[in-house]
């Protein structure tokens, strides 16, 4: 199987960093490109901003953190490996799966969030959502 387009969701966690390390090695071996995606979780933002009006300008300001995470992760990709950087605002699992489908991604390499069992049961995990909603292989890295 050939992996020409590898999608790596990043959130600044150690698991995401480990996933990126795997993706870089795979990209070297397969001549792949890497797309880093950061999804600023709208659900977390809405809880924190409860009564604040969410203007377009405010939403763009919120994306700054995601863009910083992507830019930091991009430093770990060698220059010879082509890569893109994407930052979006919304529901992480859904937007990762949507991006993979729209861009014809061949492989998703993502970190295991390390959520507790109860939290994963109640809210579901991003990796579980992605696994069940994409057609391409998904590699989960701890």
Automatic annotation (TrEMBL):
Q: Where is the UspA domain?
A: 3-142
Q: What is the lineage of its organism?
A: Bacteria, Bacillati, Bacillota, Negativicutes, Veillonellales
Protein's organism: Dialister hominis
Protein's cellular compartments: Cytoplasm
Keyword ATP-binding set for record: no
Q: What is the protein name for this chain? A: Universal stress protein
- Keywords attached to this entry: Cytoplasm
Q: Looking at the record's lineage, which domain of life comes first?
A: Bacteria
Name one cellular component (GO) term: cytoplasm
Is Cytoplasm included in the keywords of this UniProt record?
yes
Q: Which family does it belong to?
A: Belongs to the universal stress protein A family.
- Which CDD domains does the UniProt record give? USP-like
């Amino acid at each position: 199987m050939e992996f020409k387009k590898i999608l790596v969701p990043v959130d600044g966690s150690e698991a995401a960093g480990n996933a990126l390390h795997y993706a870089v090695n795979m990209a070297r071996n397969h001549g792949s490109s890497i797309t880093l995606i950061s999804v600023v979780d709208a659900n977390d933002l809405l809880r924190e901003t409860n009564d604040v009006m969410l203007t377009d300008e405010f939403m763009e300001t919120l994306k700054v953190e995601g863009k910083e995470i992507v830019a930091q992760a991009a430093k770990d990709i060698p220059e010879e490996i082509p890569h893109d950087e994407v930052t979006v605002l919304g529901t992480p699992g859904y937007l990762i799966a949507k991006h993979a489908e729209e861009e014809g991604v061949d492989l998703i390499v993502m970190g295991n969030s390390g959520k507790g069992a109860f939290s994963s049961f109640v809210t579901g995990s991003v990796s579980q959502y992605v696994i069940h909603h994409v057609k391409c292989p998904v590699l989960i890295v701890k």
